Amino acid sequence: MSQGTAAPSRRPDQDEFNPFQAMSDRFDRASDILGLEDGVRDVLRAPDREMTVAIPVLMDSGKVKVFTGYRVQHSFLRGPAKGGIRFAPDVHLDEVRALAAWMTWKCSVVNVPFGGGKGGVVCDPRSMSQGELERLTRRYTAAIMDILGPDRDVPAPDMNTNEQTMAWIMDTYSMHVRKSTTAVVTGKPLNLGGSRGRTEATGRGVMISCR
């Protein structure tokens, strides 16, 4: 590049640090190897449904703070959407889109009857009390519950969420549908129908892969 020439501007969808763009690039490489038609690629790349919600929460200080939440359902081709919910200050929609797509690929590769989904809430959970996190989780669940359900979308723990978060989601969902619905989430406490070894599963998978 000659001296004094400005670097070409980079569009957001070309950002090498954009997770959705990274997912799309890798998907294209795999599609080339598999010889997928362009129409099939377009269907598999685009999320089926995206939801962005505003979540007003009464904080311990007595003030109301509005958080932003996302839920992306990438694919229902193999069954209900499946994927975690993360709480983090740097969560953004393209990240959630990419993670939802990767869930679709993961479920397909291991041949389980789910599509891919992912959720996130923009917050700093380390600076929030247990009561604030509970109110945030319940309001987020109420905001997206029309697209949740055992036959539609089944959340799970992810970054900064855990079995307690899943218990709040299950309880909130169950109250709205007026019946106990344990199948609406995975990663629940054992006494609410959770699976043994779920907490350690991700780390164990990394260990097995390294071996």
Q: Key terms for this structure?
A:
alpha/beta, Rossmann fold, disordered N terminus
The number of E-state strands comes to 5
Q: In order across it, which strands form the biggest sheet?
A: 1-2-4-3-5
Could you list the spans in which at least 5 consecutive residues all have pLDDT below 50? 1-13
**Whole-number count of domains:** 1
CATH topology: Rossmann fold
Radius of gyration (Å): 19 Å
SSE pattern, N- to C-terminal: HHEEEHEHEHH
N-C termini distance = 46 Å
Q: How does the major sheet shape up?
A: 5 strands, mixed
* Proportion of beta-strand residues: 15-25%
Helix content: 25-40%
Averaged pLDDT, please? 89
* CATH architecture annotation: 3-Layer(aba) Sandwich
Task: Give the CA-based shape.
Answer: globular
Number of helices: 6
Task: Specify the CATH homologous superfamily.
Answer: Leucine Dehydrogenase, chain A, domain 1
Category by helix and strand content: alpha/beta
In the CATH hierarchy, what is the class? Alpha Beta
